[in-house]
Amino acid sequence: MAKINLEINGEKRVVDVDPNTPVLWVLRDHLNLVGTKYGCGMAQCGACTIHLDGTAVRSCVLPVSTVENKQITTIEGLSEKGDHPVQQAWLEHDVAQCGYCQAGQIMNAAALLKSNSNPSDVEIESAMNGNICRCATYLRIKAAIKSAAQS
Amino acid sequence: MTQVKTPMNRRSFLKVSALAGGGMMLSFSWLAGCKPTPEEVSNLSKEWFELNSYIKIGDNGVVTLMAPNPEFGSNVKTSLPMMLAEELDIDWKNVIVEQADFYPERFDRQFTGGSLAMQMAWKPLRTAGATARHMLVQAAAKAWQVPAGEITTKDGMLYHEASGKEAGYGEIASQAAGLPVPEEVPLKKVGDFKIIGNSKKNVEGLNIVTGKPLFTLDHKQEGMLIAMIAHPPAFGQKVKAVDDSAARSMPGIKDVFIIKTLEEGYVRNGFDTTSFTELVVVVGNTTWEVMNAKKALKVEWEKISDSTVTVAGWGGNQQTVTIPAGLESTQGHLAKMAEMAKKPGKELRKDGDPEGAFKKAAKVIERTYTAPFLAHNCMEPVNCFAHVTAEKAEIIGPIQAPESIMQTLTARLDMPKEKIHIKLARMGGGFGQRAYGHHLVEAAVISQKLKAPVKLVYSREDDMTYGIYRPTYTATYKAALDENNNMIAYQVKAGGIPESPLGFAQNRFPAGAVDNYLAEEWALNSNITIGAFRAPRSNFLGGVEQSFLDEVAELAGKDPIEFRLELLERAKRKPVGKQNDYDPDRYAGVLKLVKDKSDWKRGKSDVHRGVSAYFCHNTYVAEVVELLMKENKPVVEKVYAAVDCGVVVNPDAATNMAEGGIVDGIGNALFGEMTFQDGVPQKSNFETYRMIRHSEAPKSIEVHFVKSEADPTGLGEPLFPPIFGALANALYRATGQRKYNQPFLQDKQPLV
């Protein structure tokens, strides 16, 4: 166990955990930030996507000891009231079916638009390929990303 | 307007008597954990008056509608309350939707599956809405001393034109709550609908995009422990001995023990799976600690012997199911299925003289198809919260069929059902898998033993290797054409491990459209467990039958749509047999619609096209796939779907569901496969189990609904089966190769 200093959604947090604990479980079990989802535990499905210094990363394989003094953003911190352009576009296109993977999809999409404000279809597909949606809402996700890029 | 009788049985009496007192406070979404905002609080009613178990009206006119069915993503939490709201005649903006707990005394049919929600709720929920509206009108008539027949309603307001009196529902609700329930109420005509047929956004949309705790896996409460299970690595094995010394000494670990989830001699119901019933359980403080301790378990497994279990079938018939010993492999399954396909099967339907017709045929074609076991792979792995004490059991779980598992829980916990409370959490996918509530029993048994609240969490690997798979199937089709290329005989022999796909489908098209017809089936036992998977059985039959018909049309030198339309015309004009379970006009209707919308007649040189049409789960679907090959891989450019599901309750959500079924179908057709070696599932996570991903989805999908006033039917399943066929037929046009074995692509490499 070790005390780890974290900065999550703009707030300083300290956790006392095994330093190997993936950030996903620190968020979910220790900090009660459960918007970030567990899907595979091996960075294959994207449900656990968060931003680390603005870049999309899979939190399920990211040891908490490696993120000290870095800025973490989770779905809860993407916007105050769900008014981030990507969240708004998701609502406009009524993307979700079961909704479980969507936080990861949204975090990945938000990071994509930050680095590429007007992605092509191929760029969207390529950037989003690591995020599985079992309900298969891929077309709406793509449409929502395009809408968000316009706004 | 149609007059319908309101069901005045014990259930409605309970509904009414429970509410007569009114004044129930709104309990905010129990799991959402999202406290109402100050703005929301200021809008909250001080008092709520319950008009029936589905409808509460606040003194300020805000209406709470209960969503009775468990939500797994088909959007019933939005579309079912739309039915209530329509007949209640309220403004959708003033509606709060609340998820009902499992409470069969108050709610009808709390089951999600079989694409049945729209169909089964259509009358009861509209009646509940109309009944409440009627009571409000009666109360206003009494208060205003005017005839009820002169009162009109609109958007949550009551009006009496002659006297100029008007009032909101909130002002009248307290008086309406005590009134008797009418014996008959009028329902609106389809043409008068204002809410039904107009797209409403998912009521959980904002909670989903902001990451609110909606799912069981997100639930947390004081003193809650985390439990994980270890099940045998192979089907055909059980626990022999456990060395838990290393696991026990790991940080955060509270206990390690073995549970038995079903007692010997327990008579199972159809949703009690025969998967592993003896499990090693590790309990600790946090998920990561328990995951690590589980890896440190040393479990010795042993082979099972042949055994039997008793299952209570539908209609009270008990049957004995044999679970054979042995460690099974995919190669063995394929060999056994090929052998069985050569033997006569059990006859399910026979018309005319198929044998004679085949003898005198000008052309005969025979083809055999196979499909593998499939895992559901819901994005939310299996999990469940339970807190069982001597007094009561509180369970929160992702469960499609709470009623079935309630029976299991009462038997296993030895508690009357009145003491067991199941809350229906939003499910992170279901697809049939979550109809099997073994995880509720497991969590409850663990909690009962620990005397503590516990959340049971499956790893992805536990989830994928637990069973309840779509069975592996094979089918051999044979057709005969006469010298004029008319289909004179058609035969199907289908079977699977451990279930035949054909048992409910022998009366489907093209039965009824051909003079000589034979359907036969067989099944072989297995210890690999199966369960419902999006459009059970149809998910195989729809695809392969539609591939076969494409090949028969080609042999006959006919356009595949015209060939099917000819057969449907025959089924309409002079049907063979009386048991045919489809309406040839509605079937032909979707084919004609897809033909029109896809511009089928105009040849397209830039894409390869395939068509299919199937009727299952009470909805008619025709689909056209357009694809091209890039670097030897198919790229689906466009899919057209024509759908006849009667009245479309929530059109944009219906389109979403249709798109999902199509993309999911393409994914499973191209990649979906679970294989076995010596009983061990060969895939346990997404690095080997290929799921369709963004870049592989069709580039666009057009969904067209047949305009209809027929009662609505469902959409969760019907779009899924035929896409396998349309895709196979398009692939044939693109490559010259027919696809007889699923998955169509053998590329197992992960993309990330």
From TrEMBL, chain A:
Q: Which UniProt keywords apply?
A: 2Fe-2S, Iron, Iron-sulfur, Metal-binding, Oxidoreductase
List the residue ranges forming a coiled coil, or say none. none
Q: Does the keyword Hydrolase apply?
A: no
Gene3D superfamilies associated with the record? 3.10.20.30, [2Fe-2S]-binding domain
Pfam families registered for this protein in UniProt: Fer2 (PF00111), Fer2_2 (PF01799)
- Limits of the 2Fe-2S ferredoxin-type domain: 2-78
What SUPFAM superfamilies does this protein's entry cite? 2Fe-2S ferredoxin-like (SSF54292), CO dehydrogenase ISP C-domain like (SSF47741)
Protein known as: (2Fe-2S)-binding protein
The organism of origin for this protein = Pontibacter anaerobius
From TrEMBL, chain B:
Entry keyword annotation includes Membrane:
yes
Q: Which InterPro entries match?
A: Ald_Oxase/Xan_DH_a/b, AldOxase/xan_DH_MoCoBD1, AldOxase/xan_DH_MoCoBD2, AldOxase/xan_DH_Mopterin-bd_sf, N-heterocyclic_Hydroxylase, OxRdtase_Mopterin-bd_su_IorB, TAT_signal
Q: Where are the transmembrane segments?
A: 12-32
**What are the entry keywords?**
Membrane, Transmembrane, Transmembrane helix
Keyword Phosphoprotein applies: no
User: Could you tell me which PROSITE patterns the record lists for this protein?
Assistant: PROKAR_LIPOPROTEIN, TAT
Listed name of the protein = Molybdopterin-dependent oxidoreductase
Say which species the protein is native to.
Pontibacter anaerobius
